[in-house]
Amino acid sequence: MNLDNLLTLDTLQLAKAMLGWRLRLDSEEGSYEGIIVETEAYLQGDPACHAYRTKTKRNAAMFGKPGTIYVYQIYGMHYCFNISGNEEGIGEAVLIRALEPTLGIELMKMRRNTASLKNLCSGPAKLVQAFGIHMDMNFWNVRTDALSLIPPQNLIVDNDIITTTRIGITQGADFPYRFYIKGNSFISKK
């Protein structure tokens, strides 16, 4: 499956199909890459979705063309990022929860102030910090900008995907919209 085909999937399918794809950032400091091992879907009718009520200045990127990057701050100090799904004008996105780091590891360790490979990208705020993703990347698109998606070498089959409920939310917490690669030690938590 190529990127154009991936981004035609509905948001729930997209969250699952992104597993195994590589996230890559090419910056002035270097290149970073990691395999997507955990995602969560946020749908417009979902009370946990930032676009649940209406389009705002904060969540406008979620309504962009499929593949639009949505960067936002949580808890007043951490950042997370999503990739929009569905059609333009529908506020839905996939939160990238965890990566298995594969390139740019030494700089990631410096940014995260840790020597632990497993602690670099095993959570949405951790991977943003490790990659140096920032608010200026809000509204970028994985089709055209330096934060991109690369197809997997091997597709992840359904038997190797765990579907479960999302983490760290109160509303919509029982929806089975979280996906991760079975047995992968880089996920945020089981």
From TrEMBL:
UniProt keyword Ligase present: no
InterPro entries: Formyl_transferase-like_C_sf, MPG, MPG_sf
Molecular function as annotated in GO: hydrolase activity, acting on glycosyl bonds
Keyword presence, Lipid metabolism: no
Pfam assignment, any one: Pur_DNA_glyco
Its EC number(s): 3.2.2.-
Principal EC category: hydrolase
Keywords assigned: DNA damage, DNA repair, Glycosidase, Hydrolase
Family: Belongs to the DNA glycosylase MPG family.
NCBIfam families named among the record's database cross-references: 3mg (TIGR00567), PRK00802.1-3 (NF002003)
Protein name: Putative 3-methyladenine DNA glycosylase
